[in-house]
């Protein structure tokens, strides 16, 4: 995080890397299960602050053609700071239909400025060996590939 390389010009990484980042969150969660049901309800509120430095638009001058280096050296990406609030709400529910079959649903709502990766899921799970023991606590739904 020494350099902010979040730009998309030559020599930048295209990933967010602030020089300062501070975040506070307050999560609340409730989980329970019965013989054939398992569920989880959760919510969280958060506040965050970040700061980036002004950085050269083209940090690797040796990649710039010699004729253009003087102009490229004058260009920069302005730094700055930002802060904001966000929240998350989550609900998971799973039911054992038979010892082999389970059905479930999940919803995950996340909201912050310029970021809202919310999901909704319905699923059916089959267990070849069958299971009559305790339900998973919390339920274990499928995860979107991008979340791993």
Characteristics:
single chain; 148 residues; mainly beta; 5-stranded antiparallel beta sheet; two-stranded antiparallel ribbon; 4% helix; 47% strand
What does this structure look like?
The protein has 148 residues and is mainly beta. The protein has one domain. The chain has 1 helix and 7 strands. It has one helix at 69-74, and strands at residues 20-33, 37-52, 55-56, 76-77, 80-96, 101-111, 119-126. The strands form 2 sheets. A 5-stranded antiparallel beta sheet has the order 1-2-5-6-7, with no helix packed on it. A hairpin with a 4-residue loop joins strand 5 and strand 6. The longest helix is centred in the middle third of the chain and has 6 residues, at 69-74. The protein is elongated. It holds the Pfam family BCSC_C. Keywords: Repeat, Signal, TPR repeat.
The low-confidence runs, each spanning 5 or more residues with pLDDT under 50, are: none
What percent strand? over 45%
The number of distinct β-strands equals 7
Integer count of domains: 1
Which structural class should the secondary elements be placed in? mainly beta
Strand order of the largest sheet: 1-2-5-6-7
Topology as a string of helices (H) and strands (E):
EEEHEEEE
Pfam family, one: BCSC_C
Protein name: Cellulose biosynthesis protein BcsC
Keywords: Repeat, Signal, TPR repeat
Domain Cellulose synthase operon C C-terminal: 1-127
């Amino acid at each position: 995080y020494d350099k902010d390389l979040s730009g998309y010009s030559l020599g930048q990484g295209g990933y967010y890397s602030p020089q300062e980042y501070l975040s506070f969150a307050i999560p609340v969660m409730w989980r329970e299960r019965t013989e054939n049901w398992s569920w989880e309800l959760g919510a969280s509120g958060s506040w965050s602050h970040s700061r980036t430095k002004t950085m050269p638009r083209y940090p690797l001058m040796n990649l710039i053609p010699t004729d253009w280096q003087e102009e490229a050296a004058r260009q920069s990406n302005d730094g700055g700071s930002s802060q904001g609030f966000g929240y998350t709400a989550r609900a998971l529910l799973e039911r054992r239909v038979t010892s082999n079959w389970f059905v479930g649903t999940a919803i995950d709502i996340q909201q912050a400025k310029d970021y809202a990766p919310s999901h909704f899921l319905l699923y059916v799970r089959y267990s070849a060996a069958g299971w009559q023991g305790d339900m998973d606590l919390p339920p274990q739904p499928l995860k979107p590939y991008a979340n791993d």
